[in-house]
Amino acid sequence: MSRESKAERLSRLADEIGYALGRGEFPENTIREFRFLWKTTPDQEKDGLSYTLQDIEKMIKDMRCEIAIQAGAGKLKCIPVDHISGTDQELNNA
Prior knowledge:
This protein is an all-alpha fold. It has one domain (6-92). It has five helices and no strands. The chain has helices at 6-22, 28-39, 42-45, 53-72, 89-92. The chain is globular. The N and C termini lie far apart (44 Å).
């Protein structure tokens, strides 16, 4: 069994988050792990990743948009504000 790359792990976590949101859940632990991996630079990881910071930032933005959409549709009971920051926080107020 081969080791899952960081980019693959981030992609899988993003999928898990999307599925959970679709069920009306807020996967706080999965999001916490996603954010931790995202903040770990390739130099710290030392596994020769080929993704760019822009790719990861887009994944985060897409995740935040999905959270905002689900919240706006009344499918989430609560959203911890610390998961949404900067200009993306405006989406939470829609």
